[in-house]
Amino acid sequence: MNHETKPNSIFKVIGASSLGTLIEWYDFYIFGSLATIIGAQLFPADAGASALINTLAIFAAGFIVRPFGALVFGRLGDLIGRKYTFLLTLVLMGGSTFLIGLIPSYSSIGYFAPILVLILRLVQGLALGGEYGGAATYVAEHAPKGKRGFFTSWIQTTATLGLFLSLGIIVLSKNIIGAEAFADWGWRIPFLLSILLVGVSIYIRLKMHESPMFTKLKTEGNISKNPLKESFSKKGNFKMVLLALFGATMGQGVIWYTGQFYAQSFIENTCKIDFNDSRYILLWGIAFATPFFVVFGAWSDKVGRKWIMLTGMLLGIIFYRPIYQMFLDKSDVSKTEVSAIASTAEPVITRVPLHDKGDSLITTSTKISLLSGASYSKVLVDTVYADASKTIGHSKEIYKDKILETSTFWIFVGLVFFQILLVTMVYGPIAAFLVELFPTKIRYTSMSLPYHVGNGVFGGLVPFVATLIASFAGSTPLSGLWYPIGIAALSFIIGAVYLSNKKDETIND
């Protein structure tokens, strides 16, 4: 039996579900968007590159626990219902995000700072593990036949829009209070604001009704008594769980996090683009690409889900290295011709004490403006030892805070847009694809686990693993890309061989 819903009702369902899910993604992604600044707050001043890597590891921890959240809240969703389960996940996510904004820095409480943030990050991961499956299932179970890909694709926009919202609030806060204040205490503002957004979403979700399919099951007394056992001990269902993971969500996850999070990290930390410029590039790319979630979701209702998703993976495999090489080439200012320089500002010299021995880190920063309108800072770094018997550290030359000329800026936007377009191809149809694999009474549990292992573990680890690989001796800035390329290639092969090209299959009651 197909439980159709009136058009007004389905849009209310989508609106209420999407708003809450968008806010949860916003809460989850603020941390990644501020990784560099947060790292400086959580770790010692002389931690250097390890502060970023450690902060990305804390960021990744939230992804690793997402599958456990999928099991815990998926089971609750199949036992007590979709509505109250993702109300609970919203409260947990909002509360932990707000508390991250209150954690003192390393200078106040030492290593308790990163430990407390890690604990709250784990709570965030558990909450998100229960949110997505509930929202996608809830919308799919309201969707009329023939439009499941179209309607669930609206939920798919929320992850990218949550990132967009987090970037927008970060840039706005920084511009209002200034870069120095933002790096000191202002980075807490986006975390603290989340409590207001969560409050609005909880109010809206309290007015929602339970899914008609789940209500029917409950009325008939057919609710699963043990969703975990039915999901993973029955051979046929467990086979579908594994196929969904290795043939779809694993590859989809690395495409998602490469195109958005690793792109941002690479542009900011490897290409050394100015903080605001790097966020504006991503904001424009997201703005242009986001409508394609709905385009590909709707198209999948007509031509099937499989080949749209696999084509997105294949294009990432082919184009990632050329795209990131272009990022490097277009941002390289090390060979700037003297004739291209419009002006050179007076050098700014700063001294940062190291350890307790009197050693110091001396940085000499000179801002250089070019005739093209671009600019950058040339930074010389010296280690000066208090013990005269030691050799003075050799200078290290860094080019940072690069502001791109207009044409290069839009090339960067285009490259990010293309990557997010691939995200819309793999992600737009996947909610419909997953709900069609599993029966109603164990759907929340069954679809949540492969989704969050694929996205949370394989995808969420992209920024950390790729940055770590690129830091190894003998590696190049592009070495980290082999991780997402390899995972996407494996998923493409498995999906091409074993997935069926589903489109608008009747979902079991």
UniProtKB/TrEMBL annotation:
Membrane topology, record value: Multi-pass membrane protein
PROSITE patterns in the cross-refs: MFS, SUGAR_TRANSPORT_2
Keyword annotations from UniProtKB, A to Z: Cell membrane, Membrane, Transmembrane, Transmembrane helix, Transport
Major location (coarse): membrane
Membrane-spanning ranges: 51-73, 85-103, 109-129, 150-173, 185-206, 240-259, 279-300, 307-324, 409-435, 456-475, 481-499
Pfam family of the protein (one): Sugar_tr
Keyword Transmembrane: yes
Recorded superkingdom: Bacteria
Gene Ontology molecular function, alphabetical: transmembrane transporter activity
One Gene Ontology CC term in the entry: plasma membrane
Name under which the protein is recorded: MFS transporter
Protein's organism: Pedobacter frigiditerrae
